[in-house]
Amino acid sequence: MKSYTLTAITLHWLMAFAIIGMFFVGFYMVGLPVSPEKFRLFSWHKWTGITIFLLAILRLSWRIAHRPPKLPEHMSRVEQFAAVTGHRLIYVLMFAIPLSGWLMSSAKGVQTVYFGVLAIPDLLAKNSQLGDLLLTLHLSLNLLQIVVVAGHVAAAFKHHFIDRDDVLIRMLPGSPAARRHPS
Amino acid sequence: MRRLVGFILLSLTALALPAAAAEFNAVQAEKSTLVFSYKQMNVGMNGRFRKFAVQMSFDPDKAESAKVGFDVDLASIDTGFPEGDQEIADKQWFNTAAFPTAHFASTRITVLDRNRAEVAGQLTIKGHTQAVTVPASVTMQGDQATFDGSFVLKRADFAIGEGPWADFGIVANEIQVTFHILANRTK
Fold this sequence. Notes:
The complex is a heterodimer.
Chain A: H1 6-30, H2 36-65, H3 77-108, E1 112-114, E2 118-120, H4 128-162, H5 176-180
Antiparallel strand pairs in A: 1-2
Chain B: H1 2-16, E1 23-27, E2 33-40, E3 43-49, E4 52-57, E5 67-73, E6 77-78, H2 82-88, E7 101-111, E8 116-125, E9 128-141, E10 144-154, E11 174-186
Antiparallel strand pairs in B: 1-11, 2-3, 2-11, 3-6, 4-5, 5-7, 7-8, 8-9, 9-10, 10-11
């Protein structure tokens, strides 16, 4: 059984928890009344978003350098197409969602300062109409993401419980192949 | 009240001595600005006040005896965010319902050189009065003078941002206030 590398597995789960957490924090924080807690959550949300963007760069580079294991042969061409398209979409969203958030912040008139230390230049000048448009984009991309991720999770369970193949197992940290190739 | 009497006396003096009244005292409100900047979780933010009145009498030949006063309509704040403008009117910030106006009145002008002076005065916001010294510069062109200056006020000195907002980790204590005033000479 060929598995993912330990690096790929670590990045997968780290980003999975970060992205799902960010999704709920994002919806929670926008509903809060103006308060120090709201400001703090917004800042942490932006800092985490940048971190996810950086991890996405690392992850894409790693994936290009380390081919992932092949899809099981029992999958139909339609299933293979759905899997490949779903994975590509998730990769696109890992970049597009932080980017739309950063652009929205600039358009809303708040520069992003990574961990309060590193000021990221504003690509856009303040423009509240554009800011509202980017908010809609950021929200829509997130709703798309939650649908794709739900499909991803459902597919993983189908592979494990119905097809009884190794697709889910090979992405788990303790998978035997990962232990054999701890790269 | 004392300022009003002083103002009336000053006006009467101006009427009585028309020859000595070649001073800059007609402030051009629409060409003057009052802006501020601060850090919010280390992010540089800025805003302005849309409505403020400046009373000024400045004779370049007698700069030490110049006088300046500001009345700032705190509800006219523009933080750049409607929800920010609303929040800052709250009791914990400006409490504009009880303290609608911020006042500054100069008490002493120290001339540094031909174009620069230090303006000492009393600043009152939200019922708290503090002595402040503001470096200012003047540029004169014919019958028009431009006054520029900037100083840092500490919001805690005026109880701006109380309760949970007293934490400087969210909104910094230091607020940079910058003015640009245009005044015409009246003869």
